[in-house]
Amino acid sequence: MSAPGLQSAGGPAHRPGPPVPELIRRKRDGEHLAEDEIFSFVQAVTDGTIQDTQIGAMLMAIRLQGMDRAETEALTRAMAGSGKQLAWPREWAGRLVDKHSTGGVGDKVSLPLAPALAACGCKVPMISGRGLGHTGGTLDKMEAVPGFCVSQSPEQMRELLEHVGCCIVGQSQELVPADRILYAARDVTATVDSRSLITASILSKKVVEGLSALILDVKFGEAALFPSLEQARELAETLVGVGSQLGLRVAAVLTAMDGPVGRRVGHALEVEEALECLEGAGPPDLRDLVTQIGGTLLWLCGAEPTAALGAARVATTLDDGSALDRFQAMLQAQGVTASVARALCSGPGAARRRLLPSAPTQEELCAPSDGTVEQIRALPLAQVLQELGAGRSRAGQALDLSVGAEVLVSVGQRLDAGTPWLRLHHAAPVLSDRHRHTLQSALRLSAGPPFPTPRPVFELVLPPITACPQD
To answer: Which Pfam families match (predicted)?
Structure first.
């Protein structure tokens, strides 16, 4: 019998397929693999009967030859069926929602979004990941809060959703074990950017969550996995198409990742900014993304008749304190002491900063000349912060959660030479000239006049034929 909160994820009946080398050869030569053959490969990955070199060879064959929609769907089903599936009370049907981002710089949207949706009556079992390279991870951000525990069993997740309405947790051992193996192999075999492998990795974890609705934030731009809007749109369309075939009510949004989300980058600094958003303040672009993504989810699950009304409802939870209350409850339920949770969520900013990791050194960089801020590039900022300890170059590497940067100016703002534009938080004895040069390259100035700060790029991708969510 399955443990409470878990049930078998199912999947096609296993029938022995061709030998693994034959499958690798066929995919290497661009042939189509049948569902039972893909399931056979995933089964071998899960039970350990395949060699690491064979996994790497198959992943590279998929990366170079691609998979069609049917193969991608089969791979997703097989991976989802490699472990257990979360089971929820029947009365939660229609209210279970989640969001996934393909990764960005300063992307702290999940932190205020989950409690805001909980304040709207949703159940949000947010299974998140860690950062790797220059992109941040939601679990790492949450661990900047003293005592916060991201390791929660399915039974504990059910308790969190029952009493709080949301949780932010890591992937448990029982869920999609094939993905943990394949994801680690992709990272060391230069196959991370395969559209089919990305789709299967993301959706297999969401399928086992038993969701009513899912939204996918697909980033594009210099600091994103896919630089061009066209590439990101192709990934979004694949995710939405395969997700729909798997029974998910799913949509995707395309958002730009040339500049950081908000004004702060780095784990402790992003928690602080997320709290400001939960207080009805903070950077306008962060609030925009939280309300628009949240509003679209409320529309998808049928809680609101339009995404615009959903966005207004999410905004209300940020302004009236109900989302902040849910966040405080989540902190306490996931291991944070009541006094720390209360101080973080209701204390003054200075008290909040004393509770979060703080870097010993803060220094400001100044504008090298007069000009208007045309762009603040996210990638150079993230690359330097990674090298200073905020990011990983390999899985499992320890992070310095206090390292980060605060952007002190806005795009469109006119600056005089010598105006501080960036405050860096770090532990290095001396910042190297190379790091200074890289950071200064993130500030792009022009001779043009000041202009209003643009709103985040936001394009919605829906299934080809979308029924009204209430139907």
So the answer is: Glycos_trans_3N (PF02885), Glycos_transf_3 (PF00591), PYNP_C (PF07831)
Please check whether residues 367 and 247 belong to one and the same domain.
no
Compute the average pLDDT of residues 234-253: 95
Q: Any idea how long the chain is?
A: 471
pLDDT tens figures, 411-428: 999 999 999 999 999 998
329 & 361 share domain: no
pLDDT, tens only, 80-128: 999 988 999 999 999 999 999 988 899 999 999 999 999 999 999 999 8
402 in catalytic set: no
217 is catalytic: no
186 catalytic? Reply is: yes
Question: Is 206 a residue of the active site?
Answer: yes
- Rounded distance between C-alpha atoms, residue 56 and residue 46, angstroms: 14
- The yes-or-no answer on residue 410 being catalytic is no
Closest CA to 461 of 309, 310, 299, 252: 252
Active-site residue, selected from the candidate residues 130, 205, 267, 435? 205
No. of H helices and E strands in the chain? Answer: 18, 15
DSSP structure class, residue 453: P
Nearest to 107 by CA among 271, 239, 331: 271
Catalytic residue of the set 27, 84, 100, 263: 100
Is 108 a residue of the active site? no
Domain match, 95 and 60 both: no
Q: Are residues 59 and 177 in the same domain?
A: no
Give the Cα separation of 295 and 309 in Å (integer).
7
Task: Give the Å distances, CA to CA, from 380 to 367, 383, 387, 439, 442.
Answer: 16, 5, 11, 6, 6
Instruction: Please confirm, yes or no, whether 27 is among the known catalytic residues.
Output: no
DSSP 3-state assignment of 250?
A: strand
Give the domain extent around 46: 20-66
Q: Catalytic: 291? A: no
pLDDT tens string 3-23:
446 665 555 445 567 899 999
Asked if 341 and 361 sit in the same domain, the reply is no
Catalytic option among 138, 191, 204, 212: 138
Catalytic status, residue 84: no
Q: How far apart are CA 137 and CA 362, in angstroms?
A: 23
pLDDT tens sequence across 117-138: 999 999 999 998 887 767 778 9
